[in-house]
Amino acid sequence: MRRAGALRCTDRGPRGAVKAALDEGRSRQLAAALGELTRQVLWARHAPRVLAAAPRTTLHTRVGAGHATNHRVDRAERAIITFGWRMVAAKAAGPDESARWLSGREILARGYFGGRLGLLDVLAHVVCHEFAHLVQTAEGARRRHSVHNAAFYLVLDTLHRDGSADAVRGALAPICARLGVRTDGPTTARADVVAQVLGDDPRHAAAGSGSRGAGRRGAGRGAAAERGLRRGQARGARSGRPAVRRCSTRFEPGDRVAFQVRGRRITGCVQRINRRSITVLPDVPDRPGQWWRVGPTLLLRLEARPRTTDTGLPGVLAMDRRDKKRIEVLQKKRSKLRIEISTVKRFPDDPAELPRLEQELAAIEAELEKLKLP
Ligand SMILES: [Zn+2]
Predict the structure, then answer these.
(1) Is the pLDDT of residue 44 over 80?
(2) What is the percent of the chain where pLDDT is above 70?
(3) Cα atoms found within 13 Å of the Cα of residue 266, Cβ hemisphere only
(4) pTM here?
(5) Buried (b) or exposed (e) across 27-47, using 16+ Cβ within 10 A?
(6) Distance 206 CA to ligand 1 centre (A)
(7) All structural domains of the chain with their residue ranges
(8) Shortest CA distance to 221 belongs to which of 250, 189, 196?
(9) 273 falls in which pLDDT band (50, 70, 90)?
(10) Which of 64, 177, 212, 259 could form a disulfide with 82 if both were Cys (CB 3.0 to 4.6 A apart)?
(11) 274 C-alpha to ligand 1 centroid (Å)
(12) CATH of domain 210-238+246-303
């Protein structure tokens, strides 16, 4: 069985093993129905928009064997949306479970379907989420460094505003009834679950670069007892983003760092500087998608992303301005790539991506090496 975290973009679930609350047969039928609704409702409504941007697009939907639920485009420009049956089975467990998935957090953070997490809500939303990727991709707004970006949410918001999402939800109800799948369960998750899943900066969550519950809990309980480790509360629910005061200027994304958890040394790469902590992607995660939030005082820098302001390097002083500029550009690229590589390792999108990124990084490092020689 493939594990949820090893898969990509949309709907990463909690821990490795997600409880299946619905039998495989009906989960598969429901997953197939989600594909049908993508075509009958969303494609029927929005095909003109998609085809205007990418005239050769064709839609294919399939039922996946695991949790993986995603959209991709193959070489023949076929848009392929996969709905994993285990994703459906897990969501049938109810709002507490659904809230832990990216799509559930999206509903909560963005208020889709009035923030309700009933089975119809979460499944209809997944259909919209994947279709939004299709539109986004057709319009050229999906890029390697930004998948769940502003353009994506513009599309997704539209699907919820123009009645498309409601239409999917409405069409799904009789299908569930026919399959004998109950949809009248609770629609709100427990407050502590909501606080936990929204505890993250929603943008961070939406960007799909962290992990949800799993890593957080791993880093939190127990380990958090160690001073300085992750003290964040449910502040992500706040809207509006005032000028963020960062906890540290000593670290920057891309820095290589180490820290200790219960006597264990963990090394990784700084992904983000938060208000009171630093998000670190471990080199060797305990589980897919794990990340840590660590107080800056507990972090040891192994290798800095070289600061361009460093004047300690005689080589830099002697360098002509063009080289200096080039080095700055390369260093920025390198830092971005390192983060990207960390993310891709956790959520492989396409098997060719990692080797390509690593090759790119090697080329940049080689060029930097050359430029720095006196
Ligand atoms: Zn997605």
Answers:
(1) yes
(2) 74
(3) 26
(4) 0.54
(5) bbbbbbbbbebbeebbbebbe
(6) 8
(7) 4-194, 210-238+246-303, 314-372
(8) 196
(9) confident
(10) 64
(11) 23
(12) 2.30.30.30
Q: Is the pLDDT of residue 337 over 70?
A: yes
User: Which has the closest alpha carbon to 50: 141, 111, 124?
Assistant: 141
How does DSSP assign 232-298, residue by residue? Answer: --S-TT--S-PPPPPS-SS--TT-EEEEEETTEEEEEEEEEE-SS-EEEEESS-SSTT--EEE-GGG
For 165-213, how does the pLDDT look when each residue is reduced to its tens digit (9 = 90+)?
A: 999 999 999 999 999 999 988 899 888 888 887 775 433 333 233 333 3
Measured CA distances, 352 to 87, 136, 248, 348, 349 (Å): 25, 22, 36, 9, 9
pLDDT, residue 310, reads 47
Using CB atoms within 10 Å of the CB of residue 154, give its burial: 0 to 12 exposed, 13 to 18 middle, 19+ buried.
middle
How many angstroms separate the alpha carbon of residue 10 from the centre of ligand 1?
4
CA of 11 to the centre of ligand 1 (A): 7
